[in-house]
Design brief:
175 residues; alpha+beta; 15% strand; elongated
């Protein structure tokens, strides 16, 4: 339930990478600004601020969303996951991150957090995507460094890894 702070700003409560958080926010504050400026989740990058580049992609209740187009008050009672929440223990990379590393699927790294979040959703919903599906999801992101080929190969490799490691278990790419 949303409350109000002493200075009349709405107080929102939600989970961020599995941890309960609350914050008093201006009604027009964007989720990107809340994450980066108030909650130190600086892995969520701000690129175009128009929802075009995909750098700010996070998961809200498991679905990829542009944080630059989402008001912070919209995540009241929801689960938000950022790139900081991908590594299982905060130190070891998950299968998707390992594949990006192995395939050199990042260069400057600015777009990478958003791309990782979109593919985390994809692999959770479709643990065995084909190349066309991977390219379709990737089309929602702009990367000026990699040429995209290594990213596609990394996602396909991560899918193979997840399918080999967990053949009978429910698959969630972000484990």
């Amino acid at each position: 339930m949303r409350g109000v702070s002493k200075d009349e700003r709405p107080v929102i409560r939600f989970t961020l990478n599995g941890q309960a958080v609350s914050a008093a926010v201006e009604p027009r504050l964007l989720l990107t600004d809340l994450l980066r400026d108030h909650l130190d989740a600086t892995g969520t990058h701000v690129g175009c601020e128009h929802g075009v580049c995909g750098c700010c992609t996070v998961l809200i209740d498991g679905l990829a969303a542009r944080a630059c187009l989402t008001l912070a008050v919209q995540v009241e009672g929801r689960a938000v996951r950022t790139v900081e929440g991908l590594a299982p223990d905060g130190r070891r990379l998950n299968a998707l991150q390992q594949a990006f590393h192995a395939h050199h699927a990042l260069q400057c790294g600015f777009c990478t957090p958003g791309i990782l979040m979109s593919f985390t959703e994809l692999l959770a919903r479709d643990p065995d995507p084909d190349r066309a599906r991977v390219e379709e999801v990737l089309s929602g992101h702009l990367c000026r460094c990699t040429g995209y080929h290594a990213i596609v190969e990394a996602v396909l490799d991560a899918a193979r890894t997840l399918n080999d490691v967990q053949p009978d278990a429910p698959r969630e790419a972000a484990q």
